[in-house]
Specification:
binds zinc ion, globular, 227 residues, TIM Barrel, binds D-xylitol-5-phosphate, alpha/beta, 31% helix, eight-stranded parallel sheet
Length: 227
């Protein structure tokens, strides 16, 4: 497993969902200098109404990047595929709390040598993830309805980010806080201010004429530095 870096570090996670799959490795390498984690959206056409990519794509991409592969499993039955993800070089997998069986999924992911993340949809109450905060490596708050890139940021989920940041800090928990969906130059500082330390961005990076510069700009507006 590739080292995810220190808990709480400020990270940009470009989402390859918005990349050109025909030249995926080149797209990933073009933003490598601004990539802390690489966000890989896996959609099964069941949990979400869209299909994206799975283990074969991760396997093909693995030789081209040394970054932590943050695999977001938008799947109704992620447990069935955890071993396949571990085998192709997924470093972390996040499972949706809405699919249930959370404790077993988190344990199985870790037993397979991966970091374990938990995700909640915009309409899912924060209380649903609270029992697991001590057992996860990262919490990811969805700021769009999962399934598609390029949607508008849902401001209402910022309360959940604030509550999670409070609980992580007050509890001294070894847990990163990630936000996914609609992150751009306007929303990135809002999410960072609310307490997210990992910003996923797809369209705001890969749909731009200069993806690397776009990622630098997101980091800059979020945290005021380019390091
Ligand atoms: C949405 C995905 C997101 C998506 C974000 O289902 O989970 O990771 O790639 O894309 P943007 O940044 O375009 O909202
Ligand atoms: Zn995602």
């Amino acid at each position: 497993m590739i080292d995810p870096g220190p808990i709480g570090a400020r990270r940009i996670a470009p989402s390859i969902l918005a990349a050109d799959f025909g030249v995926l490795a080149a797209q990933v390498q073009a933003v490598d200098a601004e990539t802390d984690w690489l966000h890989v959206d896996v959609m099964d056409g069941h949990f979400v109404p869209n299909i994206s990519m799975g283990p074969p794509v991760i396997k093909s991409l693995r030789p081209y990047s040394q970054r932590f592969f943050d695999c977001h499993l938008m799947m109704s039955d992620p447990g069935r595929y955890l071993e396949a993800f571990a085998n192709v070089g997924a470093d972390g997998v996040s499972v949706h709390v809405e699919v249930g069986g959370t404790s077993a999924l988190l344990r199985d992911a870790r037993d397979l040598g991966m970091r374990a993340g938990l995700v909640l949809n915009p309409e899912t109450p924060y209380d649903a993830v609270v029992p697991f905060l001590g057992d996860i490596d990262y919490l990811m708050v969805m700021s769009v309805h999962p399934g598609f890139g390029g949607q508008s940021f849902i401001h209402d989920v910022m309360d959940k980010v604030r509550w999670a940041r409070r609980d992580i800090d007050e509890g001294g928990l070894a847990c990163d806080l990630e936000i996914d969906g609609g992150i751009d130059l306007h929303s990135a500082p809002i999410a960072a201010q609310a307490g997210a330390n990992i910003l996923v961005a797809g369209s705001a990076i890969f749909a731009q004429p200069q993806p690397l510069a776009a990622a630098t700009a997101i980091r800059q507006v979020a945290w005021g530095d380019v390091s």
